[in-house]
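Weekly puzzle thread! Below is a chain. First person to post its structure in token form gets bragging rights.
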Amino acid sequence: GQIARGDLGKSIRSNMSVSKVIIGRLEPTISLTILTEIIAISVAIPLGVIAAWKANSWIDRSVMGIAVVGFSIPVFWLGFLMIWVLSLNFHLLPAGGYVRFFDDFGPYLIRLIMPAFAAAIVMMALLARITRASVIEVLQEDYVRTARAKGLTNQLILFRHALRNASLPIVTVIGLGFAGLLTGIVVVEASKP
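Winning reply:
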């Protein structure tokens, strides 16, 4: 009954209200999720499109090889490696901590880069693979052949027809990744594209 009224009780560790503890963690969680998604989307979708456009070439094999490696690296291990290299050895980024968004934007962003990139690696690999598979599937459709026969340029076919029609699985994976990141779940690949 207390849960239905919003009373989650007291934390065993801090003896504070669990609701207040959760609310206190919302800003860092949402910030990290949004930055992770921005990094993953801005890198993975162009790589997936290029891999699909140059299917069965060295570019395609290179992008998919990088995606396999990115999907295989454990996020916690990559995080420790990044702390060791970027923070402890080269002193480029801080190893930890959090600065609130409204307190100071520069340190806020600098402290989010490393964890966001570590979390984005798996998301990038999955998105690149899904994008490649969806675009390849769409490029084999009859309306794409018709567009080529009408004399449309390859870039116009890719951006106007192929990407628009290949976007449904891509948007679905982005949404699942966002929900998974918010809840602390690393999105895993359900099927091979």
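Puzzle host: Confirmed. Bonus trivia for everyone else. Confidence is low (pLDDT under 50) at residues 186-193.
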